[in-house]
């Protein structure tokens, strides 16, 4: 975890892109597997799928294993999974043509799209086929802390997730500003790199307070045994945030984009996975983010609410 004041987004993006490129993508710049190939050059030999950080990269890869398998079976193209160093790494890797499908946070997706990365959403995880998917950011403190509101954050060490994290930075920044707290100058910000890392840093006392998305605090870390109920107090909740998308490079051949769009819309949900024989029952289907249903389609304008928060906060991280 970085405990110094945050670097600029540009610096983080460059470092993250370098980190992903070094571990990443399993191919050299000279190979045809690069995502940077134009549609005229045909489909890549390997599809690269990247996701944002997790405390346990092996667990994250396992969560995406079924998604990876279905894409491989349907397209006939091998899929390589990459656990990215941070949100900016996914943005810059897709910008550089090193990742074909990136799993983003809402803010990092909007940042990528609005800065010229050629991507479009394939879908978001939802707990039912007809819901409008979303989640909340929680402000958390150790149980019994004297910090009881965002106003009490002044002068404290505060864990954020990442400069391009929607629920780990952008919406918390909006909440802090509304409470009269400048997230850049009135607190000592720490970028933990992941929602799990942020919550656990608060639990351990490395940060006086912090932010993470709702179910990371109330379900995921509790189910894993990393948090016990009552370890953390939730002292603020954001408004509802548009759910995190998976986005595909639009430089891929259109027929492949159309096929991937159909896969995410019709095949990567629990009922379809059971029907296709991937799972014996819906309960046994393991999908990322513990989604109860699977992917549902969304369009780019689903993220206009995130863009509006950028306008309100004028956060430096909103400037690509």
TrEMBL record:
SUPFAM superfamilies (UniProt xref): Periplasmic binding protein-like II
Organism of provenance: Rhodococcus artemisiae
Domain of life: Bacteria
One protein family per Pfam: Phosphonate-bd
Protein name per the record: Phosphate/phosphite/phosphonate ABC transporter substrate-binding protein
NCBIfam families: 3A0109s03R (TIGR01098)
Gene3D superfamilies: Periplasmic binding protein-like II
InterPro entries: PhnD (IPR005770)
Signal peptide: 1-29
Recorded family membership: Belongs to the phosphate/phosphite/phosphonate binding protein family.
Record keywords: Signal
CDD domains: PBP2_PhnD_like
